[in-house]
Amino acid sequence: MDELVHRTVPSPNWNDRALPISMVVIHYTEMKPAEDALARLTAPDAGVSAHYLITEEGEVIRLVDEDKRAWHAGQSYWRGHPDVNSASIGIELDHPGHALGYRPFADAQIDALLPLLARIVKAYDIPRANVVGHSDVAPMRKIDPGELFPWDRLAEHRLCLPRPTRLEAGDPFDNDAAFYLALERFGYDVTDGHKAVAAFQRRWRPERIDGAIDGQVRAILFQLLLDRDQGRAR
Fold first, then answer.
1. Which of 40, 69, 136, 213 has the most CB atoms in a 10 Å sphere around its CB?
2. 192 is in which domain, residue-wise?
């Protein structure tokens, strides 16, 4: 039994992993109420699931055992892995999403997420750079958990990378092609460049999401790569 889990509602939507666990992907349900999302994530004909669902009230519900491959990320890619489901643990957050009235995430929900995520990151030695949003691994299809997700709270507990604040290194990219190559090196699928940049902005510069490559996003990406290459941003 996991003291961080309040109840278990098994989903039949899983299969065996083909990769070791090295990632966590955070989603929102874009459904209300939470029981509707729970019903879909456990319906045999839905073809979707996650390892956990966390309600806005802070209830943690286990749907799929962590050693199994839940079906949460769909067609996705991160850091060379096209089978994100096999390498990740998926956490769904009960939330109306952009379609039903986007709003800040509930404090009780994030308070429940933090210890669960901390336990997962420690258990599987997951790099902070591999704690990502659905939009990071599927930029052409997804925008969740979105620009209001409190990545800064996770970063305070060293559960994800913080947004770089020191950008003195500047912008070394001579052209957009060089930026896209660097963005792919960081982890993103750049098949659709505009959407990949928007996903990067949604995570790292959420106050302005336009899909345009500008000096600020170039500087942020360069600093992220520098920090990672110099061992400061595992």
1. 136
2. 176-229
